[in-house]
Design a protein that fits this description.
The structure holds two protein chains of two kinds.
Chain A lengths: L15 H8 L5 H4 L3 E5 L3 H13 L2 E5 L17 E2 L11 H11 L6 H21 L24 E2 L5 H19 L2 E4 L2 E9 L2 E9 L5 E5 L2 E4 L20 H8 L4 E2 L4 E7 L22 E5 L2 H8 L13 E2 L1 H5 L9 H13 L11 E4 L1 H7 L1 H19 L8 E10 L2 E2 L12 E3 L17 H21 L13 H20 L5 H15 L6 H21 L11 H25 L23 H4 L1 E6 L8 E6 L15
Parallel strand pairs in A: 1-2, 1-9, 2-5, 9-17
Antiparallel strand pairs in A: 3-4, 6-7, 7-8, 10-16, 10-18, 11-15, 12-13, 12-14, 14-15, 18-19
Chain B lengths: L2 E7 L8 E7 L8 H14 L21 E3 L2 E2 L21 E6 L7 E3 L2 E2 L2 H8 L21 H11 L6 H5 L6 H12 L8 H14 L10 H5 L7 H21 L1
The chains are: A alpha+beta, B alpha+beta.
Chain lengths: 647, 252
């Protein structure tokens, strides 16, 4: 029986991290050289961790699926990164950022972890500036800030609409320095397909070279997984095409618990779907909600005319527009958290007020801001986003409102980790979006970048070192052990099985089918009935996949269909776990909205008595019921309230 | 919309490649260029053939993975955009589309339309960074930077490392890519300390990787999806010469 011990340090909340660091175990420089660390994933968390481990003197092997570490999907984050700097003098503090994050997550995250995140957030900005990240500045030369959803202070630092790109390039620079120095060895175009456990500790990985097709073995003293989230289980999401859950799913199957899998974030401002051949969705940054106003027609007949192309949005007079977020949430208005904004859009569209040809869109209008601030100010703030929109939709957002609709964007759930970011497998760590740690049931905007870099620069270098302190006498591992043999054989057998099916349907056919089920039943609105149906349908789709998928080629060389197939095979199991988790959680919280549990005015209704816990699932076998372990959440430093963004 | 596609097929780095002709029909004008290729690939897979390999990931124009040379232009017919964001409506009245990988000695073909751009990473590894280790750095607002400088630095830092500049250049020169990184860091006070050393190391690595020389034709600027300016090359040349002179002085 696995016992969940979050290993939270003793002492008052504000002193826990300091206490941890004072008491942690260290490794002397000569011994660091003898210790090897595998990092999987080159996004913010992975790149920052690998660079920092390298600087400390450890031997690092870093693995990424792309041709360059700079292409990891952190690169696509647009809006910004939060920090507790209080440069605005508007009342921000470590506690305030901690409070907003816990509240934004609807009281389903762990206090100590979130406090540490808020505590190191300022250091992240310092570090990035030192690396040369060109954050936006004011004419005075000081750093500029903007506001994001779920906060009443301006604490978001940004680099135009390309903050993720600039932060990742900063981490990539630090990483490149360490590669040059020889402390980090970079393996590009390699996908991890299993973790190797020797005597109860993670000691290596099995990878597939995505160009030559070779299956490789790599050993180390410890393994860090930073491979991102699992949003692509929905087929359509804002995740990159190659973002996948296979590394996290495979460590789950080796004993790492998977926490809160149903907590997915549906982002309110994405470009609406155009048709069946759509391959992915494009996000329009949340920062647009600083100056854009969201509305739909007040009259159904106007909405209908717009859908038929008989009317244009600019023709609708002010009085006939429903700025529904400002109406429902006067205090936060257009800057309510993402889950709230997404559900409100769905509610209006379901009620027949949606626009666009499909009726699955709402307007995001800049006319007022352009009038108030001038077109050049709006262009300066959002120029590149407006350009992206125009290229994709063929509409000019300076002249007509943007159309947006919610889309899957981020997964708060992930591998269960303790305070040290260690999973339930000894010596196996998970960081960034891959873990469940900091965002509870809903992540606030501009907090993903913060968490990735916090884990990578400022948490793992301490906790992994502490873990390695008693490993100094463990010699380097060889990869010819029976454990490596067995793991490689498992991977080979699975891939050969996939190739041997030789069915009639393509991988994407099944993926679209799964995505449809997930979106309809495990998406923005969930019910007991729908979730039970989804579990059944996912199982059926999985069985059909394993009987009828068609994959050309073999194990050798580049085989893109085989890559998609193993990733989908994992999604077909993960999707079921997400539905199970959503079914068990008989409450609504954050991004998890069970339609049976809502207030009279359609807000999420939490049940703190029964569900104030982290739900961590243990794998027992495919087609077998997983076991749920509960980590109770205790709030000592925050008063648990109903989230209220109205007043 | 219907198209005839002439696509470069090459099994792997060692095998000789050739153009193959394919037809696609009923393509929506709202489909992206890569979605059109997805549709073609689905039909190939159903016939039991290997799909066409091409690098792509974010499909939002920011990761820099996509790298297709379409009808003689890197990233296709539009300007300041990557091919992943070009939609088929841009191909009205274009019957035949020729699709090739980037062509440059420094970017060998790996499979079909996929190329090896690790030469770019090597150039960055040679010195394209500020050597600030984690921790122990000053407060972010302790370093004041004029807004104009910060903005100009950001414009250079917007480079996505796709390699379209190299593909567009008749000499396969990487000067625009290298100059963007050199300028991004040289424009910031934090980047000054290592500026001279950085440009020397990066240029030496660039030459070593087999990229050609710059002859100021400006094809790179015209095809850059992020609008990186030719003036950065001028800045890099200045930095390089200043660095050389500085180095000579030290040698004396």
């Amino acid at each position: 029986m696995i016992k969940l011990d979050p290993k939270i340090p003793k002492g008052p909340l504000a002193e826990k991290w300091t206490n941890y660091k004072s008491a942690q175990k260290l490794v002397n420089p000569a011994n660091k050289r003898k210790l090897e660390i595998i990092v999987v994933g080159t996004g913010l968390a992975g790149a920052a961790a690998a660079a920092s481990f390298g600087e400390l003197g450890f031997k690092v092997k870093l693995f990424g699926i792309h041709d360059s570490p700079r292409r990891a999907h952190s690169i696509a984050a647009q809006g910004g990164i939060n920090a507790n700097k209080n440069y605005r003098n508007d009342g921000d503090s470590t506690y305030r950022l901690f409070y907003d994050t816990i509240k934004g997550g609807d009281y389903r995250s762990r206090e100590a972890n979130v406090y540490r995140l808020a505590e190191v957030s300022g250091d992240i900005i310092d570090q990035c500036v030192a690396q040369g990240v060109p954050f936006a500045r004011e004419y005075s030369g000081y750093l500029d800030n903007r506001s994001f959803g779920g906060a009443l202070v301006s604490r978001t630092f940004y680099a135009k609409g390309q903050t993720g790109q600039q932060l990742l390039l900063g981490a990539y620079g630090a990483l490149s320095k360490e590669i040059h120095n020889g402390s980090v060895e970079m393996f590009t175009r390699q996908e991890m397909l299993d973790v190797v456990i020797i005597d109860g500790r993670a000691r290596g990985i099995i990878t597939k070279n995505l160009i030559t097709g070779e299956i490789e073995r790599h050993a180390a003293h410890t393994v860090v997984i930073a491979t991102g989230g699992y949003g692509n289980v929905f087929f359509l999401s804002t995740n990159a095409m190659n973002s996948n859950a296979s590394a996290v799913w495979r460590i789950y199957k080796r004993g790492a618990l998977f926490a809160n899998p149903s907590f997915t974030q549906i982002h309110p401002t994405c470009i609406p779907v155009h048709g069946e051949s759509q391959s992915k969705l494009t996000l329009m940054s949340e920062s647009l909600r600083n100056d854009g106003r969201i509305w739909v027609p007040r009259k159904k007949e106007d909405a209908e005319k717009i859908r038929k192309g008989q009317m244009k949005p600019v023709q609708i007079p002010e009085a006939d527009r429903d700025y529904y977020l400002e109406r429902r949430y006067p205090a936060f208005g257009n800057l309510v958290p993402r889950d709230v904004a997404s559900r409100a859009a769905k509610e209006r569209c379901d009620a027949g007020f949606g626009v666009g040809t499909t009726g699955l869109a709402v307007y995001l209008d800049f006319a007022d801001s352009i009038k108030r601030l001038g077109r050049n100010v709006i262009e300066e703030r959002y120029g590149n986003l407006f350009q992206i929109y125009e290229k994709i939709v063929d509409d000019n957002p300076y002249e007509t409102p943007m159309m947006i609709y919610p889309a899957v964007h981020y997964t708060m759930g992930g591998i269960w980790v303790d305070y040290e970011l260690q999973t339930t497998v000894t010596g196996l760590f998970a960081a960034g979006e891959a873990n469940f740690s900091d965002h509870g049931a809903n992540r606030l905007g501009a907090s993903a970048l913060m968490q990735g870099l916090s884990d990578g620069y400022f948490v793992l270098p301490y906790t992994v070192q502490s873990y390695l302190a008693d490993q100094i006498n463990v010699p380097k591992f060889k990869t010819n052990t029976p454990e490596f043999d067995a793991a490689e054989k498992g991977v080979r057998d699975e891939l050969n099985k996939l190739l041997g099916i030789k069915g009639k349907q393509t991988v994407d056919t099944f993926h679209k089918k799964l995505g449809r089920i997930m979106w309809d039943y495990v998406g923005m609105g969930r019910t007991k009935e729908g979730l039970e149906k989804a579990i059944k349908m996912i199982k059926e789709t999985r069985d059909e996949f394993w009987k009828d998928v068609k994959i050309p080629g073999d194990l050798n060389g580049k085989n893109a269909e085989l890559e998609k197939a193993w990733r989908l095979a994992d999604y077909l199991e993960l999707g079921e776990l997400m539905a199970r988790d959503a079914l068990v959680r008989e409450e609504s919280c954050g991004g998890h909205f069970r339609e049976e549990y809502q207030t009279p005015d359609a807000e999420a209704l939490r049940d703190d008595e029964k569900f104030m816990f982290v739900g961590a699932w243990e794998f027992t076998g495919v087609d077998k019921e997983p076991v749920l372990h509960k980590e109770p959440l205790n709030y000592e430093y925050i008063e648990v309230k109903t989230r209220n963004y109205k007043e | 919309m219907d198209f005839t596609l002439k696509i470069w097929r090459q099994k792997d780095a060692k095998t000789r490649g050739s153009f193959q002709t394919y037809k696609v029909t009923d393509i929506s004008s709202d489909s992206s260029f890569l979605e059109m290729l997805d549709i073609l690939n689905e039909s190939l897979v159903l016939k039991g053939e290997m799909p066409i390999n091409f690098d792509n990931d974010c499909r939002e124009g920011i990761c820099g993975a996509c790298s297709l040379y379409v009808n003689g232009r890197p990233h296709g017919p539009d300007t300041e955009i990557t091919i992943c964001q070009v939609h088929m409506r841009k191909f009205k009245n274009v019957g035949t589309i020729v699709i090739e990988p980037w062509r440059s000695k420094a970017f060998p073909v790996l499979s079909d339309l996929m190329i090896d751009r690790s030469a770019f990473d090597k150039i960055i590894q040679a010195g394209g960074y500020i050597s600030a280790s984690t921790g122990g750095v000053p407060d972010a607002n302790a370093i004041l930077i004029r807004k104009e400088k910060a903005d100009e630095s950001m414009d250079a830092a917007a480079c996505i490392g796709c390699g379209a500049c190299v593909a567009a250049c008749k000499n396969a020169s990487a000067m625009l890519f290298v100059s963007a990184k050199v300028s991004h860091l040289a424009l910031l006070p934090q980047g000054q300390v290592e500026a001279k050393r950085r440009v020397q190391m990066m240029v030496a690595e660039m030459d070593g990787q087999g990229f050609g020389n710059c002859t100021n034709t400006g094809a790179c600027e015209a095809e850059c999806p992020k609008g990186i300016k030719l003036t950065y090359i001028a800045r890099m040349n200045r930095e390089f010469i200043a660095g050389k002179m500085g180095a000579q002085k030290m040698d004396l």
